[in-house]
Amino acid sequence: MKPTLAGYARASTIAEATAWLAEAEGEAKVIAGGQSLMAAMNMGLAGDTRLIDINGIAALQGIRVEGDRLVIGALTRHAELGRNALIAEHAPLLQRAVPLIAHKAIRSRGTIGGSLSHADPAAELPACVLALDGRIRIAGPEGEREVAADDFFQDVFVTDLGSDEIVTAISLPLAGADETYDIRELSRRAGDFALAGLAFVKRGGAHRIAFFGTGPRPLLARGVMAALDAGDTAGALEALSGDIEPQNDAHASAAYRGHLARVLLSRCLKDHA
Ligand SMILES: Cc1cc2nc3c(=O)[nH]c(=O)nc-3n(C[C@H](O)[C@H](O)[C@H](O)COP(=O)(O)OP(=O)(O)OC[C@H]3O[C@@H](n4cnc5c(N)ncnc54)[C@H](O)[C@@H]3O)c2cc1C
């Protein structure tokens, strides 16, 4: 199928993009890397879309340290996350995640802002940002706000973003010297979306573990985390089923996804608990 396009405009500032989104009253979509949006348009799933291209907005680019946070511009490509020295030093989990995302061509165009806004429940970066206790910076016609990742992801492809808002950046606490991190997933073939996966962070004895592919959104495994914080590895495995919400779909049954999540957690804990 060919996509139907009801209009295209290239914004050069955040204010311009959000004003155009507001004017369109929900009938326009931002395009960043286009790696999810174009696929949806080609399948006729995006309606008669007006596109607002944000690739020319310089303020959405760049990776920098601000005080005790690492700030990653929304237009940062997956491939850049994989090779950037500040990411390697301050958010190495993201670097570890990159090779698991799709294929080279998709990683060279796809953006972190696009991945988080698209909110595929099986995507790696949303789960990593959640495990890293990240915050999402958002701009709209009313100004700027910041939302914790845990409040940002709401349902399958649903986030806290309003139709006239864009993600401008992601901010993360800087990784400490004592930080342990890991990301594991199981998929049918390399490059496929995960059937189940987890992002693991241990900072100063406190654990944050986010599962992906096992619920309508990336999920913080709060029961697992509390058991691990108390030094109870067996209790962590027992708590898992209460923390995830695997669903049946064309790719796998809920029971199979739940089983994979348990396998991944037990392998991860063998190495890190
Ligand atoms: C074959 C294939 C395999 C893939 N496999 C994986 C995988 O294994 N793991 C994975 O994580 N991803 C995978 N992806 C998705 C890929 O990572 C996308 O790049 C990513 O999800 C979307 O980023 P994008 O910049 O391309 O966004 P776009 O496609 O441009 O946009 C996606 C959505 O986000 C919105 N959006 C984009 N940027 C912003 C912003 N700054 N503010 C507000 N809204 C915004 C758009 O309006 C649209 O609704 C795959 C894609 C394909 C085509």
TrEMBL record:
InterPro entries: CO_DH_flav_C, CO_DH_flav_C_dom_sf, Diverse_Substr_Oxidored, FAD-bd_PCMH, FAD-bd_PCMH-like_sf, FAD-bd_PCMH_sub1, FAD-bd_PCMH_sub2, Mopterin_DH_FAD-bd
Pfam family, one: FAD_binding_5
Domain of life of the source: Bacteria
PANTHER family: XANTHINE DEHYDROGENASE SUBUNIT C-RELATED
GO terms for MF: FAD binding; oxidoreductase activity
Domain FAD-binding PCMH-type per the UniProt entry, residue ranges: 1-177
Annotated source species: Falsigemmobacter intermedius
Entries under PROSITE patterns matching the protein: FAD_PCMH (PS51387)
Entry protein name: Xanthine dehydrogenase family protein subunit M
Keyword entries, A-Z: FAD, Flavoprotein, Oxidoreductase
